[in-house]
Amino acid sequence: MKPLVVADLHASLSDPVLESMNFLNEVAGRFRDAISFAAGRPTEKYFEIEDVERCLARFREHLEVSKGLDPSQVRRLLLQYGRTKGIVHDLIATNLAVDEGVVVDPEAVVVTVGCQEAMFLVLRALRADERDVVLAVSPTYVGIAGAAQLVDMPLRPVRSGAGGIDLDHLADQVRGARAAGRRPRAVYVVPDFANPTGTSMDVRTRRALLRLAEELDFLVLEDNPYGLFGDHDERPPTLKGLDENTRVVYLGSLAKTCFPGARIGYVVADQPVSGGGVLADELSKIKSMTTVNTSPLAQAVVGGKLLQHDYSLVAATKRESDVYRRNRRLLLDGLAERFPGGELSWNTPAGGFFVVVDVPFVADDQALERSAGGHRVLWTPMSHFYRGSGGEHQLRLSCSALAPGQIEEGLNRFRAFAGEQIRESGVVR
Amino acid sequence: MKPLVVADLHASLSDPVLESMNFLNEVAGRFRDAISFAAGRPTEKYFEIEDVERCLARFREHLEVSKGLDPSQVRRLLLQYGRTKGIVHDLIATNLAVDEGVVVDPEAVVVTVGCQEAMFLVLRALRADERDVVLAVSPTYVGIAGAAQLVDMPLRPVRSGAGGIDLDHLADQVRGARAAGRRPRAVYVVPDFANPTGTSMDVRTRRALLRLAEELDFLVLEDNPYGLFGDHDERPPTLKGLDENTRVVYLGSLAKTCFPGARIGYVVADQPVSGGGVLADELSKIKSMTTVNTSPLAQAVVGGKLLQHDYSLVAATKRESDVYRRNRRLLLDGLAERFPGGELSWNTPAGGFFVVVDVPFVADDQALERSAGGHRVLWTPMSHFYRGSGGEHQLRLSCSALAPGQIEEGLNRFRAFAGEQIRESGVVR
């Protein structure tokens, strides 16, 4: 047969968002010996296959002892088709109470194949027709942009501002969209150590955002993959923790707090729906036609991990959190040592995986190619996190998956690369 | 906040397809002590949790010995984020060669979260705009109807006919859709022991379908979850095995051949795409925004199972296949014993999980409620598998997950129920 024509396939396949993911993966695959400040992966330092087996055994024990299931019921639960909303929903609800002080009905939890499926389910539910739009603080995590693409839902940018989101701009965008006949359904935010900027939302802004959501009638999609990985043990309340009017749909990831390889995320959607039930029930119906149910074996591993640590992911990730604190410190100190003259500048996030560097040269895909090929060091052009223009002179450095020696050597390489770019671009500061 | 209005959510959430799934699950949940001829689940007779651990260990050995990975590479592969197209794609390609004689490039395989995600990815890719439609033999598996709903793609019915599909009607539907300005992109078929009808496509029809696909330029989506479970050891060639022009997108499920709890399916999409690559590469991009990647832990379990049986799922499912043969025989003989007078009639599939019964009363949701409440026996109204009207006097019996005693007792209950319905509807034959 003659080749399928890309223009005859879904528009997302020609969109820069999916192309950019592909490009970044492709570069990483081509320069495997490079040191990568690009990958936003969790540290592998404490990975153990045996941990998987221990977690699985712990969850089985829970089913037998606490739930009173007999062996055939346990086998059925773990190996057969299962409940669409998941089998560790209750453990996740308990975790949210323990770690975040957030009380949710377990029936409002849908366990998903990673947080990405949770985003897809929510946007698929909210995108009823061509009037519907979603807003997101820009620059934006590519996952939400990609999910919006898949459901043909325009993503409108909101400026980030000092407190993590520019609420005046958000209000303008919501009102403007409505005036133009559109329906702004929700705003997507990562209040804690956002990807890609590393910035956080202060508590006053969190409260004001919820008031605005109530006043202008939109939902808030709170994504929180990095909240446990701050410099300080005390953490601000989540938006869901401050949410008195079920305005917040909470998107959870267990990739960074358990194993990415389990691919377990979840969504808390306790919004009432006309006719009865909550939004989680509607998301479950969509999930039944997307992935049917999340692998109960994979859920069991994550469930066992929660049980091992008395439902606390703070406790479960103590060692990893220390690694991330140390690595951020090494990265920030290392940048300061190597660029003392103000040629570059960068932000100083108090947590998470990412630091954003402002550079006096164009940090685009071609620059990344030169960095990878000539200096064996990878980073992410910030332009990939903007829709349209933006971020041309910025790049993202991630330090989560590197050992100290790799950070030092990586920064040496980065200095050599940046020095070359500055000289060649003829910038004098 | 005021409740979300269902009419403001995606149309799929008001569609009968999703409602019907919900209803059937709800009935099954409400009458847990009923004998269920409704569930199309695999037998649990040989389920063993220890098997999961053995499979995982076998796959690790494969990575270490055959692939030469060191322990840190194994940990990374199983626990970290991974390749979007999967890590058991090569084992699946070998399985297709061993069991089906089908040779495919492993790069054309995308491992998915069950076959349902494979359907979603394919339809999402093919549905570019409102002109695109997909065709399916009617009555149709609800999973494809649901996936089509999620991407706003109309599903047009094709009559099944004697050979498993009425090719004249298919040609009419394709030409008619084109004349009306639509783009019929693909036809969905289950050539072997289809759900819900149990019927199969003869080899002549398979070849003719492929010729028609070439002549009228559409793709064939071949779904094959039951092909290994026939009365006879010799099996007809799959459509993919007969496919000389990459017309066939092959949808595979490992739910019935390994464990449903692993949630592993796959799609073989070797269709060339303009600009290079194959359709699998495009599906991979969509998957990166749907579930990112399939749990490598879950893939490892399935991979280990394939390795244990020298890549043959025929060998791996010998015991299960015997159970299904016995159960079909018990079901068909049991129906003949209990309804000797021709009050009911049924088909006699040569494989798979399902038998369709024609009844002289309306076999709708209300009848199912009466059967469940009054007689403690469940079945599936065939009307759920039709878009619009159809199947009002038919029901589906599934025997895959029952023990012999349950089939006998279930049929006794079903006879009592059917007798009551016939008397009350006043039908005399």
Question: What's a quick, concise take on this entry?
Answer:
With 429 residues, chain A is of the alpha/beta class. In chain A, 44% of the residues lie in helices and 13% in strands.
Describe the structure.
2 copies of one chain form a homodimer. In chain A, strand 6 (219-223), helix 9 and strand 7 (248-253) form a beta-alpha-beta unit. Helices cover 44% and strands 13% of the residues of chain A. With 429 residues, chain A is of the alpha/beta class. A 7-stranded mixed sheet of chain A has the order 2-8-7-6-5-3-4, with helices on both faces. A 4-stranded antiparallel sheet of chain A has the order 9-10-13-12, covered by helices on one side. In chain A, strands 1-11 form a two-stranded parallel sheet.
- β-strand percent of chain A reads 5-15%
**Poorly predicted parts of chain A:** none
CATH superfamily of the largest domain in chain A: Type I PLP-dependent aspartate aminotransferase-like (Major domain)
Spatial separation of the terminal alpha carbons of chain A = 58 Å
Strand numbers in spatial order across the main sheet of chain A: 2-8-7-6-5-3-4
Q: Helical amount among residues of chain A, as a percent range?
A: 40-55%
Number of domains of chain A: 2
- Average per-residue pLDDT of chain A, rounded, comes to 95
What is the strand tally of chain A? 13
In terms of quaternary structure, what is this? homodimer
Question: Main beta sheet of chain A, described?
Answer: 7 strands, mixed
- Which class do the helix and strand fractions of chain A yield? alpha/beta
The total of helices of chain A stands at: 15
The CATH topology of the largest domain in chain A: Aspartate Aminotransferase, domain 2
- Approximate shape of chain A: globular
CATH architecture of the largest domain in chain A: 3-Layer(aba) Sandwich
